[in-house]
Amino acid sequence: MKDVETRGLVLLGCGKMGSALLAGLLEGGLSPEAVWVLDPNPSDWLARTGVHVNEGVPADPAVALVAVKPQMMGEALPTLQALGNGTTLFVSIAAGTPIAAFEAALGAQTPIVRSMPNTPAAVGKGITAIIGNGHAGAADMDTATELLSAVGQVVRLEDEGQMDAVTGLSGSGPAYVFLLIETMTTAGIEQGLAPDLALQLARATVAGAGALAEGSTESPAQLRINVTSPNGTTQAALEVLMDPLAGLPPLVSRAIAAATHRSKELARG
């Protein structure tokens, strides 16, 4: 991060995800003086951070972090066109925008890393997948990894084509978990629990099970087996959830396939 401290970081767009990344970087020790933010509607929080807001950008920043919505890309990206084909590393967190689109706008020699974070980044529990173009070297990939690690885990892909599946699994995935909490809560109410109690139980159960799965050396399948007593209550529920035709496995498979397909459609425009 020393290069970022000395040459600077430009953040194009500072909505929810951009703000989460910036907050993580500042909490991790990045100096506000090293950050330049370009955003048409800066928040009060942003103004209090001490970063440069809409003050122009350095001539040769170490990193330009692109965090605008895909539909705003055509209007926003040209503001950084002068930094293309140089030594500035561009890191994009814009869903559905392929590397080729950045190369077309910024120049084919531009080092570019495309990433897909997810919303738990807002609480430092995100996971981000990254892939670089041919001009993003090992040092660039390390820089992108270090930056994005400010809000959670980072994994590297072997091929940009995998990004659609990542979008379908982890990018959209938090919504699936929120739906699970919703449906567990509703089911608890149907079985006689007060709404507040059902919601508390559902939230804590999903959060706790997720933490247990992440911290365990055992597979999710083994963890499931561990809590399933023969002919017990859990087995009764799992017989419904694991039905090969109407249960959770085929439903989740179809859902992630649909999200992946939609990601491909959006990338094609």
Number of helices: 12
Can you count the beta strands? Answer: 8
Tell me about the largest β-sheet.
8 strands, mixed
Kindly identify the CATH topology of the largest domain: Rossmann fold
Give the class from helix and strand content and strand pairing: alpha/beta
Would you identify the regions where 5 or more consecutive residues have pLDDT less than 50? none
Looking at CATH, the homologous superfamily of the largest domain is NAD(P)-binding Rossmann-like Domain
Strand-and-helix sequence, N→C?
Answer: HEHEHEEHEHEEHEHHHHHH
The residue-averaged pLDDT reads 95
Describe the structure.
The structure is a single chain. With 269 residues, the chain is α/β, with parallel strands linked by helices. It has two domains: 2-163, NAD(P)-binding Rossmann-like Domain (Rossmann fold), CATH 3.40.50.720; 173-268, ProC C-terminal domain-like (ProC C-terminal domain-like fold, Orthogonal Bundle), CATH 1.10.3730. The protein contains twelve helices and eight strands. It has an eight-stranded mixed beta sheet, sandwiched between helices. The longest helix is centred in the C-terminal third of the chain and has 21 residues, at 195-215. The radius of gyration is 21 Å and the shape is elongated. It starts with a helix and ends with a helix.
